[in-house]
Design a protein that fits this description.
Blueprint lengths: L1 H17 L17 E10 L2 E2 L8 E6 L7 E8 L2 E10 L4 E6 L2 E10 L2 E8 L2 E11 L1
Antiparallel strand pairs: 1-2, 1-3, 1-9, 3-4, 4-5, 5-6, 6-7, 7-8, 8-9
């Protein structure tokens, strides 16, 4: 009887010990301010505002399964297109390297409040985009 009681108590403690929820692990990307959903607000090419419609183009930055790195998954989409890939942030140079469809493109970024500024070169032209956060 005593042995049965010890086994029962040991089982209860074992089950109780396994059911504890461990705190969520901090992801290094959280400190960059990039995570979430952004909508394009404005594009400027070589200093001239692009007057084409800037509606309904989004980019989503998400964490990946490796919380210790500065890499994640992204999804960019709008009318008639969707692109998925991975991104890596360099916090020293303030750059984001996008890797998608066997291509890589590097952007310089800056975040202020809920605005994300991205700049890059495309076929010799300087492009600057402003994005507004719509979801965290």
């Amino acid at each position: 009887m005593k042995a049965s009681l010890i086994i029962l108590l040991a089982s209860v403690f074992l089950i109780a010990g396994c059911s504890k929820n461990e705190p969520a692990q901090y992801d290094a990307l959280e400190g960059t301010g990039l995570l979430g959903k952004w909508e394009i607000q404005k594009t400027v090419v070589d200093g001239i505002a692009d007057l084409s419609a800037e509606c309904c183009t989004f980019i989503e930055f998400n964490k990946d399964s490796q919380p210790g790195d500065l890499k994640g998954d992204f999804r960019s989409y709008g009318v008639g297109y969707e692109t998925n890939g991975i991104f890596e942030v360099n916090t020293v140079d303030r750059t984001i390297l996008f890797d998608y469809n066997n291509k890589q493109r590097s952007y310089v970024f800056d975040i202020e409040e809920n605005l994300l500024a991205l700049s890059y070169e495309d076929e010799g032209r300087q492009v600057m985009q402003t994005w507004v956060r719509v979801e965290e």
